[in-house]
Amino acid sequence: MKRVNKSDSRNRRNDSIRQRIVEAARAHFFSHGFRSVTMDDVAEELGVSKKTLYAHFPGKIDLLESVLADKFASVEATLKEVTHAHPRDFPTTLHELLAETQRELAEIKPPFVRDMRQKAPEVFKVVEQRRAAVIGRYFGKLFIEGQRAGMVRKDVPARLMIEILLAMVQAIMNPAKMEELDMMPKEGFSGILKIVLEGALTRKGRKA
C-alpha cells in the first residue's frame, strides 16, 4: 500500500486555496478595480478566515502581483498553444494570435486601469517589462516566419518592426494614456496592431 506523504498533501491543499484566492481576486480586480475591495472582503467572499488569507498574501499589493502573474501565465499558455497549433501557417497563426490577445485583454475593464495608475504605478512597471517580453517572443517569431512566407516585408528587419510595436504599446498602453484617451486596453492594442501590420504586411500578406 502506497504511503501518503502528509507534507505533499498539505502543500497541494495550500496551493488549491491560494489559487482559489487568486481567481476570485482576479475576477473582482479586473472588472471592478482593486481600490475599493479590502482583504476582509476577499476572505468573506471565499469563506476563508483572515488568518488563512494573510498566510498566503500579507497585503493587497501581494495579492495584486499574484493576480497579474496568473494573468500572464494564462496569456502565455494561450499564445504558446496558438503558435504550436499551426506551424508555418502565417495567416492562421496571425488571425488566432490577434483573436486570443483581444479576448485576454477584454477581461480588463476601466476601473482596473484607473486603480493601477493611482495606486500601483510601481507594479505596472513590472507589467510593462513582462508584456514586452511576451510581445517580443510571440509576435517577433511570427514576423520572421511571415518574412519567410513572403507575407511580411523583408526590406525592414523583423527586429525593428517589433521595436516599433513595443514603442507604440509602451506609449499608448499605460494607465494614464488609456484614461486620457478613454479607451479600453483591447481597443488600444487593436488600433496599434492595425497600424503596424498595415505597414509590415506585403500585398500577399494582406490578401491572405
Helices and strands in order, then pairings?
Elements: H1 6-32, H2 39-46, H3 50-56, H4 60-85, H5 90-105, H6 110-119, H7 121-148, H8 158-172, H9 175-181, H10 185-200, H11 203-207
User: Strand portion, in percent?
Assistant: under 5%
**SS element count, helices:** 11
The helix/strand series, from N terminus to C terminus, equals HHHHHHHHHHH
Q: Give Rg in angstroms.
A: 20 Å
**Averaged pLDDT, please?**
90
**CATH homologous superfamily of the domain at 65-207, by name?**
Tetracycline Repressor, domain 2
CATH-scheme architecture of the domain at 65-207 = Orthogonal Bundle
Quantity of strands, as a count: 0
Largest sheet: none
* CATH domain class name of the domain at 65-207: Mainly Alpha
Helix content: over 70%
CATH topology of the domain at 65-207: Tetracycline Repressor, domain 2
What distance separates the N and C termini?
60 Å
Shape: globular
